[in-house]
Amino acid sequence: MDFDAVKKAAEKYKQDMTKFLRDIVAIPGESAGEEGHIQRIRQEMEKVGFDRVEIDPMGNILGYMGKGKKLIGFDAHIDTVGIGNRENWKFDPYKGYETDEEIGGRGTSDQLGGIVSSVYGAKIMKDLGLLDDRYTVLVTGTVQEEDCDGLCWQYIVNEDKVKPEFVVSTEPTDGGIYRGQRGRMEIRVEVQGVSCHGSAPERGDNAIYKMADILQEIRALNGNNADESTEIRGLVKMLDEKYNPEWKEARFLGRGTVTTSEIFFTSPSRCAVADSCAVSLDRRMTAGETWQSCIEEIKALPSVAKYHAEVTMYKYERPSYTGLTYPTECYFPTWVVPGDHAVTAAMVEAYKGLYGEPRVDKWTFSTNGVSIMGRFGIPCIGFGPGKEAQAHAPNEHTWKADLVRCAAVYAVLPSVYCNGK
Known about the structure:
- It is a single chain.
- The strands form six sheets. This protein has a six-stranded mixed sheet, covered by helices on one side. Strands 10, 11, 12, 13 and 16 form a five-stranded antiparallel sheet that branches.
- It is globular, with a radius of gyration of 24 Å.
- With 421 residues, the chain is of the alpha+beta class.
- Helix 1 (3-12) runs antiparallel to helix 12, helix 2 runs antiparallel to helix 4 (108-127) and helix 10 (342-355) crosses helix 12 (400-420).
- The chain is built from twelve helices and 20 strands.
């Protein structure tokens, strides 16, 4: 492998990648509204010489380079969150900006830079003759990740019948190689009451007061230690080998958490006792936790049992920009690829050959890996341009050097992997 030639090729395409990224950023593309992004990506894929470009019924774009036996995937979700309070932005989030080092705009780090580096990584493979009969490269621009991470890959695997040997997630990794993340799920807790006139609250049964007791116990579940004398043992217990056979990976990923994210109620009026109350919980899961275990631990809370609260998991049923609805439960499994796995070793070797010793870590947030590896067991490794802290933040930006570095690593990874098999 001529690593210097790959680095020079990646550097040569810096301005092309910059223009491509700025073009995508200029097109609004929130979840379920990504068609403009997809069409611009198709234009670039065709321009640089992808052998086949498809858009599936859900609206994901799949670009293929090469005709080898192993299918190696590079995934980038190409939807963004909204801009939030415009007053917090120092520049137009869609017009963006450019300096010698940076590119600003909504989605630059999270994670439109990933599709840019992936497309040009594949082009470098073609330019330098790295493609051979051992592998085909698949670059996916996937939709609705911000709304429902992994749904796109449920469709790609189950309906498109596409299943790569492994996938690189190009979410931002702050220059490191990431091999896992905590999972998450969205839980609803609802309790019933009886309304009455607010002038005589003792005649009713206030659902908000019941929920207040439940919320204190949810708070304790998140904050308590794991001492056996504690009535509500904290989630930190999963870092202890006494409670969790997967404690080593749990310590790598970090402990699970739970927090209340929304609250709802019903009442006949502001002069009445509330007759129902519900909350949404954001539950982050470490290794060894499942959706069943998370539901059961909420059901086991003393006040949940006392008040006969209903505990359920949310569903996602929003149509994609093509009009297709693909319902799923709001469960996003934990995943981690071992440090000594062939995919991890290949990514480390590829990076090392180009840029020296890498940092190997994990994401704080969630990615499409929840389906790629969490649901389907397809090995997934993370390496992408940008920084996690830029995700969903005002004044979002990324770095041109990251685009170049990632394109170079992507270009050599398939050959390094195949040589090691």
